[in-house]
């Protein structure tokens, strides 16, 4: 392995550890709303990634506009190159927009009766604490999926600020689910 690869891997590990540590440190910071409702807020990394992706998109788009999209005179190579360029641009644009929508719109509001989950696209799902009968943890997406007896499911990221308060509320209503969450985290 060369030095550049080692530095890149160490950088990725450092950023990953910072994200996880920062989320755990902010784990007790819940937003208090009116009527005894509390809100979980997404991690700041979603906004950072969204803005970085949009800046990369604009930078690449500007570079391609100034270069005049010139590649080669071979039609087949030009077609393949432009398809790749447009795909990469589209990927950065979509990921940046989705990350920003996730950060600004996605939220979990809960009280002593129910959990209300607003998605990035402002879709809303409501479940009652008493109806939760199962929870699973997806390590790849880093989120908990709560299922109810009516086959409704909501997903709550483990990178939300205020997750510790949410878990204590869950323990008050469903102690067996809290035990399952503890076993999933090990």
Question: Please, could you describe this protein's structure?
Answer:
By secondary structure, the chain is an alpha+beta fold. It has 2 domains: 41-105; 109-186, PH-domain like, CATH 2.30.29. It has 5 helices and 8 strands, in the order H-E-E-H-H-E-E-E-E-E-E-H-H. Strands 1-2-3-4-5 form a 5-stranded antiparallel β-sheet. A 3-stranded antiparallel β-sheet has the order 6-7-8, covered by helices on one side. Strand 1 (31-32) and strand 2 form a beta hairpin. Helix 2 (45-66) packs antiparallel against helix 3 (75-105). It is elongated.
CATH class term of the largest domain: Mainly Beta
Strand adjacency order, main sheet = 1-2-3-4-5
What is the C-alpha radius of gyration, as a whole number of Å? 21 Å
By DSSP (H or I, 4+ residues per run), the number of helices equals: 5
Fraction of residues in β-strands: 15-25%
- Biggest sheet architecture: 5 strands, antiparallel
Roughly how many Å apart are the termini? Answer: 32 Å
Low-confidence stretches: none
**Helix-strand topology string:** HEEHHEEEEEEHH
Q: Based on the coordinates given, report the CATH architecture of the largest domain.
A: Roll
What do we call the CATH topology of the largest domain?
PH-domain like
Write a brief caption for the model:
This protein has 186 residues and is of the alpha+beta class.
Features:
186 residues, alpha+beta, PH-domain like, 2 domains, 5-stranded antiparallel sheet, 3-stranded antiparallel sheet, 5 helices, 20% strand, elongated
